[in-house]
Amino acid sequence: MRFRKGPLSKFRVHEQKIFAFLFNSGTNFVWYTGRTSGTMRGCVLVAPILAVLALLAVHHHTHSISQPQEQFGELKGDICIVGAGLSAAVLAERHARVLKHSVLVLEKRNHIGGNCYDYTDHETGIRVNKYGAHLFHTKYKHVWDYLQQFSQWTPWEHRVLARVGAHHVPVPVNIETVNTLFAANLSTSAEMQAWLARRQVHFAPINVTNSEHVGLQRVGRMLYDLIFKPYTYKQWGKYPHELGPSVLARIPVRFDRDDRYFSDPYQALPTGGYTAMFEKMFASPRITVKLGVDYFDVKSNMDCGHVYFTGPIDAYFAQTGMPKLEYRSLDFERVVYRNTGFYQPASVVNAPGFEYNYTRAVEYKHFLNQSSPHTVVFFEHSNDHGEPYYPVPNTRNQQLFQRYKKLAARETDVTFVGRLANYKYFNMDETVKNALEIFAQWSASSDDHRDQVHLVISQCQEQLTWVSSWTKALSVDRVFVYSKCNAPVAVGTRENVHVVRLPNTGREGHSWLYHMLREDVVFAKQNVFVQGGHEVSLQRVQEALHEKHRRFIDFRDKNIWQSDCLFATCGLDLNTALLQPMYNRWKPSGETASLHGIRCTFRGEFLVTNNDIDRLIRRHGRAELMQIKEDLGRYNDPILGHVLERLWGVLFSGGEQTYYDPQNLKPKFQRVREYLRFM
Predict the structure, then answer these.
(1) Where do the domains of the chain lie?
(2) pTM for this entry
(3) What would the mean pLDDT of 328-341 be, rounded to a whole number?
(4) Architecture of domain 450-676
(5) N or C: which end of the chain has fewer CB within 10 A?
């Protein structure tokens, strides 16, 4: 990665150090002690003088923005990305690695990582987030698998408490919350549901138009007034009835004692921190990151094939004179507690009551059980100024955003990506998912840069020593290994080798569907699918790659190409009543709807193009194919795996195969219709 800083960046680092020194050595000391000694009075008098000098320096360097554009170096790339946050990192990494694009990233701050940026606190040695706590969680396995490439992850189940009066109670609301605040003595889920049911205010779905309706409907008046209403006002500067339903709809309510804030299957923190993860994502030599550069100052001098804009959409169209969108921001009050184990009982403690002038307190020492003789706490204060953090979800802003969205649609060479550009609250995983989807859409329309060959392998205990020679002989661009038995995967650690661990279910068909349904992969022009202990020869694969492609190439020996072997080799029989509707659905246009028998495939080893995979997904639907994959994993029935192994030719061909009429098909496995859902 090449980090190139703009003219302000070097000064800003020193500027931060100056103000940190003044803050920590002067102001903080007076704050902690509550009194001022003679020495400290001198420090306090000197501090404003130094601060004025620093501000003068800031003014001087800020003026340099208007200097000639040569100060910034070359502003050119196949892809240019405005911002260096999570959306930008995903898009930069994908374009550089997959499509071999040169990527220019412009960031007006002096660091990468956007609001995920973390660093080591200089006084305590504790790693903290500069812009508030970021806890990664997701239900999307492909998002989780994608991020595994850039960091080790430590499991972390986030728990939040709310400070209500003299109590600390779990958030989300659960049995313990109710018992503590109302002395309810609940013990079962049924009792909890009954307690809430007696207090909930019910509205017709059409009448649920704001967050007050959502809150009252979910928890009733008492909990709403005690926790949700005041916290919402402190966080948003608006009461729940002034905000759309989405605000309080995000807050979970539990009927048991589960005190985890999130229930997603994947919850973790990057072991080395978010900043280290971003450094790896930007590490390609094809990516150039320039810090301290404002896109709007250099826009006219940029030479970009395409631009991704991740900043506020109204900032991009500021010259139109349209009203600004509303954003909620945060101020962070940093307090160091010396010689203190922990300041509070959890990493995050919310303060819903108006008796507190902050919304929540974050003690980073809790995260990953960090060690320090001291601790540092950041008290968060919400406001309407400063860095934009949260889009404000109300009718006025949504209507205004639709006007901005129409302007954005006219920008043919600019794509608006991320939370601020889409004026929508994204969790981190949703941000990654959104960026991957946008990249997939973009790359699908840019086939010139697509990889030529991918090698996709389903492995159990097989040795993969053959992969290196195949990769070289076939000019493979990327290798994907789906390892299903926790066996060692000795295929090298090069950039083009990607290993994903999967449960040992569903045979190779489960692996193939997992790969084809990934939204973070741009499929190559030709995709070779083989098992770890492949039976196909390298020569046969080479021949197939040079054949005039006919939509699907099975790697079996051409001399045994006979369709009466459909399921005979596995002892499987399927009746014509099952096969007939399958054929009717996928038969070629204009052909008579009659069953001629279906050509079977063997071992699930074949060659398909990217267009084959796209057609497969369009024809059968992503949801249906996903269900098949889940069934293969859920039932873990080897017969289902064998059936799918025989059907790949049918699935990909859509009926455009050579057929033969077997007379001896007998009914035996009626559940195939239910499990595979092919009908």
Answers:
(1) 2-65, 160-249, 450-676
(2) 0.66
(3) 95
(4) Alpha-Beta Complex (3.90)
(5) C
